[in-house]
Amino acid sequence: MTLWILLWGWGTVVSLDLISVGQVMIARPLVAGTVAGVILGDPLAGGMVGMLLELFALDVLPVGAVQYPDYGIASVTAAIIAADAPPILGLGLGVAIGLVVAYLGQLAIARVRALNSAEVRRTAPQLDGGDWNVVSRIHRRALGRELVRAAVVAVMGVSVGALVAQHPLITVRGAILLSVVMIGAAIGTAATGAMRLGGRGLGLRWFVLGLLGGLVVVML
Q: Does the model's pTM come out above 0.90?
C-alpha cells in the first residue's frame, strides 16, 4: 500500500509541476519516469520509458495556452508497466499506454482551463473594478481545481499502470513489435520537432551538425 501511495503522490506532484505549481522540470518524462522507477526498485526501466517519452515531449513546449499532453504522469504509468519486466517486452507496452494516459491528462487540463475561464467571465465586472478579493478568490479556486485534476489524473495513471502490469494481454511477439514501433515513433517525433523548431536556415544546419556529432559519439 505504501508503494502505491508514494507513486500516487509522485504522480500528483509531477502533474502539478507541468503547468501550474513549481515548474522545476520534475515533470519532464526522463525525471518523472526515473524517480518512479526508483520507487518501484527498477530505475533502469523507469529511465528507459522516461527517455522515450522525453523524445515525444520534445515536440511541444508547455508554454502559454498550448495543448500539452501530461507526459509526467504518463511516465509514471509507463514505469509501473515496465518495472521488473524484460526491457524489450515492457518498454513498448509501457510507452504506448503512457501516451494514452498523457492525452487523457491533456483533456483534463483543457477542462480545468475552461472552468477557470468561465469563472473569470462571470466575475468580469468585479475584476474590471479592481476588486482584489475577487482576484485572490479566483486564484485560490484555480489552484484548487488544478490540485484536484492532478490527483485524479495520478490515480488514473497509477491504476491503469498497475492493471496493465498485472494483465498485459499481449504476446511476446506483439510486445517486441510494439517496442520497435514506439522507438521509431519517438525518434521520428523528436527529429520532426527539432527540424520544425530549428527552421530552414542556420538552425537546420546546427541540427544536422548535432545529429552527425551524436552519431559519431555513439559509434565511438
A: no
Identity at 47, one-letter amino acid code: G
Number of compact structural domains in the chain = 1
pLDDT of 203:
65
Provide CB contacts within 8 A for 55, sequence distance 6+: 186, 187, 189, 190
C-alpha cell at 33: 519516469
Distance (Å, rounded) from C-alpha 46 to C-alpha 33? 5
CA triplet 141, 151, 87: central angle to 5 degrees?
150
Residue-number span of the structural domain to which 73 is assigned: 2-219
Look up residue 207 and give its three cell numbers. 541540427
The yes-or-no verdict on residue 33 having pLDDT over 90 is yes
Beta-carbon-side half-sphere exposure of residue 62 (alpha carbons within 13 Å)? 23
Burial state string for 43-64 with b = 16 or more CB within 10 A and e = fewer than 16: bebbbbbbbbbbbbbbbeebee
> How far apart are alpha carbons 178 and 103 in whole angstroms?
19
